[in-house]
## 1
Amino acid sequence: MNNNQLLVTTAMTQYPVIVAIGALDTLPERLAGLGLRGALWLISDSAVYPHYGPALEQQLRAADYTTHSLTIPSGEASKSQEQLWRIFDWMISGNVERRDAVLALGGGVVGDLAGFVAASVLRGIAVVQLPTTLLAMIDAAIGGKTGINHSLGKNLIGAFHQPRMTLADTLTLRTLPPRELRAGWAEAIKHGVIRDAALFSDLERYADDFRDPERGVLHPAFSDLVRRAAAVKVAVVSADEREQGERITLNYGHTLAHALEAATGYGRLLHGEAVAIGMHAAAQIAERLGLFALADVERQRRLIAAYGLPTDFLATIDPDEIMTLMMRDKKVQRKRIRWVLPTAIGSVVVRDDVSEVIVRAVVEEACAPKR
Ligand SMILES: NC(=O)c1ccc[n+]([C@@H]2O[C@H](COP(=O)([O-])OP(=O)(O)OC[C@H]3O[C@@H](n4cnc5c(N)ncnc54)[C@H](O)[C@@H]3O)[C@@H](O)[C@H]2O)c1
């Protein structure tokens, strides 16, 4: 295992996660190294493909690969039955074979959709994840969760289908809209809080250097930090592939985040922004329970702000609605919300006995800031 390579190990499989600047240039040789020699079905989106698709296809063809490519519209709405069927039609009419592989070039939307295609076409073919958002590099493209949305809710149809490899080229983040990059940092901060205090400290240390994306991506410490944030996801899914135990810790900040996203209409707040607000709320709940020091609540708040992320929501939302929405979260069991709460920077506990009074007080503060 070289320096840039992490390894996901599950009961059924093992695969590398590579995070490095210029990593896409090594794709042809790495595919050959994995024994993938069939045709390649490149799926990307309309914002990503023009930047990286043509050059990648050219490289693959130069290495004697047959490539086909298809672009979906950029955005969450593409995680749909319509796009799924469009891709199936394209692949089946193009005579896809079991030995072929799907290449998912894009953010979490492309990764989830293309991953689900790979999980289901011909009862499953290989997929290689090529994430191009920070969120996908450290979270969505690792762990094998794939799927599409249903009109009644997000991610309701899908499958676990581990990729054969996740190859993240940090150079692609230079074209990512800055707001999307900031949203990705929320998940990196989350990974520091739940499992890696040194990662948290280094995120503090480099916040100023990383603020400007163009310069930040080229900073010598950048790829290393992204890799260490990805390493947390690798460790958690290796310990708990099917979300029966430790994987719930990745839900830190998400209980309130999901409710906020639903209450504000998806799209107004980016997921990472909602997670930032959710982490601050969870830290405050932990503090009120005597689990987490006030100084650490403040330290986390400062780091969230240093990456240009919010800790409260400007418009007033009805706390009753938030409380109701939180009870509908997928992670609720026997009508109890399972809160992932920090006990120190670098460790969390799961508690399902948090009093509604405490939660409501914190939610009211998050939803109606005094300005
Ligand atoms: N499978 C999982 O475990 C998992 C985990 C977390 C999130 N998700 C899913 O991921 C999705 C969100 O992913 P996301 O935040 O990456 O969003 P996204 O895929 O929509 O990408 C965000 C935006 O950036 C654009 N973009 C992506 N990379 C770019 C680049 N390098 N240059 C220029 N533009 C670029 C995209 O076209 C899009 O407009 C959600 O659907 C969520 O459900 C899945």
Note: The pocket of nicotinamide-adenine-dinucleotide is lined by residues 45, 47-48, 51, 74-76, 79, 106-110, 112, 132-133, 135-136, 139-140, 143, 145, 154-155, 172, 175-176, 180 (CB under 6 Å).
## 2
Amino acid sequence: MNKEQVKEMIEKRCVNFIMCTNSECKYYWEDMCTKNVGNEIVHIDDSGKCEDFEQGECDWYKEMEEEE
Ligand code: SF4
């Protein structure tokens, strides 16, 4: 699923997503988790810490820069 499809789904309110504010993660995009949007499971440990965190920047930001 690309970001245009996600935007469309959000506008139509037909997608549920996990809100996340960890902008240091490669799955973070606009206060949501793109991993979850792709129907992948996000694993949270007993202390509330996300086990799927990976340092980096979401590819969608790079795509947005290229489009401008
Ligand atoms: S993988 Fe975890 S830390 Fe990264 S954006 Fe998703 S919920 Fe947030």
Note: The chain has a mean pLDDT of 84.
